[in-house]
Amino acid sequence: MASRPTISDVAEASRVSISTVSLVMNGKGPVADATRQRVLAAADRLGYAPSRSARGLAARRTGNIGFVLREDHFRQSEPFYTRVFLGAEFEARRRGLYVLLSTVPDPYDPARHAPRFLTEHSVDGVVVAGGVDATLLEQLRARSIPFVLADYAWDDSPTVSADNRSGGRAVADHFVAQGHTRVGYLGADPEHPSPAERRDAYLGAMAEVGHPVPDGWVVTADGPSDRQTGALNAGLLLDRAPRPTAVFCANDALALGLLDAASERGLAIPDDLAVAGFDDVDGAALAKPPLTTVRIHKETLGETALGLLAEGLTGAVEEIPPRTLVPTELVVRASA
Amino acid sequence: MASRPTISDVAEASRVSISTVSLVMNGKGPVADATRQRVLAAADRLGYAPSRSARGLAARRTGNIGFVLREDHFRQSEPFYTRVFLGAEFEARRRGLYVLLSTVPDPYDPARHAPRFLTEHSVDGVVVAGGVDATLLEQLRARSIPFVLADYAWDDSPTVSADNRSGGRAVADHFVAQGHTRVGYLGADPEHPSPAERRDAYLGAMAEVGHPVPDGWVVTADGPSDRQTGALNAGLLLDRAPRPTAVFCANDALALGLLDAASERGLAIPDDLAVAGFDDVDGAALAKPPLTTVRIHKETLGETALGLLAEGLTGAVEEIPPRTLVPTELVVRASA
DNA sequence: TTGAAAGCGCTACCAA
DNA sequence: TTGGTAGCGCTTTCAA
Known about the structure:
The structure is a homodimer.
Chain A: H1 7-14, H2 18-25, H3 33-46, H4 52-59, E1 64-70, H5 71-75, H6 80-94, E2 98-104, H7 110-113, H8 116-119, E3 125-129, H9 134-142, E4 147-150, E5 159-162, H10 164-177, E6 183-187, H11 193-208, E7 218-220, H12 227-238, E8 246-249, H13 252-264, E9 274-276, H14 282-286, E10 293-296, H15 298-314, E11 323-326, E12 328-331
Parallel strand pairs in A: 1-2, 1-3, 3-4, 4-5, 5-11, 6-7, 6-8, 8-9
Antiparallel strand pairs in A: 10-12
Helix pairs in contact in A: 1-2, 1-3, 6-15, 10-11, 12-13
The structure holds a DNA duplex.
């Protein structure tokens, strides 16, 4: 089998120099239209695709983007970050980039767990999805590898996240529209900035309309944002007297846990208790009753992060904007 | 910032030629031990890591492995293939390879959906996880890109899969040990070879011990292997008279669906009905009652596939073995 | 608007 | 056991 065609083959076939082929393939420089056509036709006919290695070597760019994710985030059954990755991968494809996915354990030991591409400098930039150990981010910074955070925030590094505030506000508005005045909040994972934003916007909006949420009805569990935590901490809200008539949970997992706890206590949803979540995970629509929640477009999160990074890399933009929001959307189902 | 060190820097620092550095870095050739030490020390001191691009260009190997997965398999909430990927990524890391994950839609259009690395020849080989459109496999073959299938089979391509037969047999043995003689089978996804292997081994083992399973108790639904299918088709087994006292399901999703259906019918598990699944998904241990099942080591599946591929690539092995089995293990819980 | 030529950092062959 | 050197296929000045 003849080995794959090179730039010289294309040059020869289209009777131009390899420089010209290079210009055409990269859409650069002033090339006569006829020449361009001829080159493209030849490339197509020969099935030519530039060698990544050669390109990388000559241009000092790898064309690779790293995608870092905490291992437990990746293997969890809720495919949140999976979708963020999918969005990033999609956008990368559009831009002719490759994505190297690397998971890191938590806790993270910089000496042993550093993604290979980091030490080998085989990526042009990195997307970091979700919370990771700050050490990793410091490593990136130390090696001056550009990075964009998705669904996380650290220092003043560029980040793209869901519009948590507008989502939190939407829930409050919805509760009020349904006639609720005595509402509560259930959160977890105090480290992560998103829940805090959701909470603050929610509490703020409730206060604005004259129904401030008493401190006793604002619960932030000191554990992971999962269903179990939701169920275990539900009592702090449900077993009080008086009890709120509606609860906003920082995410769907907690909300599903709260629903479990409510059902155990024989509470009717949404009549005795209205519940809203955040994320719109797969399980939200399947819950009994189906969960009212704020939808995050997970793919868009990844797409946007990768897009920003890529633009920053090519210099298309001077500086990556420090904070980019992806819109959220209230999805009203039966639970509230 | 000074740019990263190159092989010449290391050569200079250790007072040898770049050829020698190359030999040392690749663990090749006869190099005096003292020299080796000196080179390694210098490399370490300078923070030298070989450039992937240069290496790839010179050696005509990319050091990249493609990992192909159907999109719906990747985004499904059960992180089965996610773990297979994790295993592959882990093994790749050990071997100094990168994994390029690419999802493909189903149905697959070879012209529009072909993973980029396929047309760009930027991988040395490919791991294909789970079922994909045969067109893709034909493309790989046509371009003579070596590949290994994980949890799938096609033609006589090398494949690594769970030991379905021994798992199926283990379930039969367990049922018999529990005193069951009238047992059934629930499967789905007739296309995929694994369920068929599980079924045949199971039915064979039952027949061997003198309790053949009547055809009427062998149900293979013509849909996806999911919980809903399990619940919907459960009636074909549960609403018959007489009814089997134990049912083996081709996977956990179906088994969980069957449990749902059984609970709706007021059947006590495992007294009225014993149920066993296959896979040992996260949800199996959490089911009510916890599901007896056959565990597949998903990471091992990915590790093995990538390992075999890598060995084949380096020529460490003459030919990749056509069929490699990863052991399975019966996990007895409360449902059977 | 096009071409010539100098590398990019490495591997692998051949000599020493 | 080590070194010299010819590429690998491309990008990128610089000239023409």
